[in-house]
Specification:
Blueprint lengths: L2 H9 L15 E6 L7 H13 L9 E6 L7 H10 L4 E5 L1 H10 L5 E5 L19 E5 L6 H11 L5 E6 L4 H14 L6 E6 L3 H13 L4 E4 L3 H5 L1 H10 L4 E3 L2 H5 L4 E2 L4 H10 L5
Helix pairs in contact: 2-11, 3-4, 5-6, 7-9
Length: 278
């Protein structure tokens, strides 16, 4: 499916006769990890993209926002409900929601935004010919993991032990994050320590362990749940005086040291307005 087909699918509402507009509006289900508050900027980006594509929430389309808050186990039931109701489109910025949505339906259009290769994730057959009911954007997060590590090394040249914070419930992201950091670390004489966290309490516990094990610096995985908890993470890093490299500017906006990566709010906007295939 191409995005122009997605636009055509829900865009017909704008040209319906007045008698038909009394019918329920087409529904877009937007699924993302984290909380509504933590995703406010991303939600604004999504609405901006919709508006640029000619859709106004509440006028010619309805958007349902579903926030996972780290509870990936609710996804199958949530998607089963969306499929039963035959929503018009499912928008899934994130690896786990996208893969679960693909397993749930072969007919409802799905638009995704993922940092890993969508072919390797099993979302599409190929970049040139995605086929099926999925299309979206790959913002190539995995390809800049090594660059983040090298930039952190340049800023903290005396650092030896680098902590990597990942969410094991988002296995595909956690795996490529650890793989790429471990591949790059020996080239600059760094040691890697992996710390897992998938709840608020586990983030606190991970930082406590980092302190005990004397990690010199930190890299945070590109993870929607972590982004929603960015104030907590940045506060703990500052408390422990731990230099940290983040994946996007949202961490820096709340006091984080530095980031290197795409603007996720703009990626989510592009999900709506791009007219080309992946």
């Amino acid at each position: 499916m191409r995005r122009r087909e997605f636009v055509t699918l829900i865009g017909g509402a704008a040209s319906w006769p007045l008698s038909a507009r009394a019918q329920p509006l087409p529904v877009i289900a937007f699924i993302r990890d984290g909380s509504a508050q933590g995703n406010a900027r991303y939600t604004a980006g999504f609405r901006k993209g919709l508006n640029e594509a000619g859709f106004v929430e509440g006028q010619n389309v309805t958007v349902e926002y579903h926030w996972l808050e780290g509870k990936y186990d609710v996804l199958p039931e949530l998607l089963a409900d969306l499929v039963r109701r035959d929503v018009a489109v499912i928008a899934t910025p994130g690896n786990v929601p996208s893969r679960t949505a693909k397993a749930a339906t072969t007919t409802i259009p799905i638009v995704f935004g993922v940092g890993d290769d969508p072919v390797q994730l099993g979302l599409v057959a190929s970049i040139a010919r995605p086929n099926g009911n999925l299309t979206g954007i790959n913002f190539q997060t995995s390809e800049v993991v090594a660059k983040r590590l090298l930039l952190l090394h340049d800023m903290v040249p005396k650092a030896v032990r680098i902590a990597v914070l990942v969410n094991p419930k988002n296995a595909s992201v956690a795996n490529y994050m650890v793989r790429e950091v471990q591949k790059a670390a020996p080239t600059v004489g760094l040691q890697v320590q992996v710390f897992n966290a998938s709840t608020i309490g586990e983030i606190d516990a991970a930082f406590a362990t980092m302190g005990r094990e004397r990690a010199d610096a930190l890299i945070v995985s590109p993870e929607a749940f972590f982004a929603s908890r960015r104030v907590q993470i940045v506060t703990l890093a500052a408390r422990d005086r731990m230099p940290a490299m983040y994946t996007n500017r949202d961490y820096v906006d709340v006091g984080g040291l530095t980031s290197y990566g795409v603007d996720l709010a703009d990626v989510i906007r592009l999900i709506c307005i791009s007219r080309n295939s992946i």
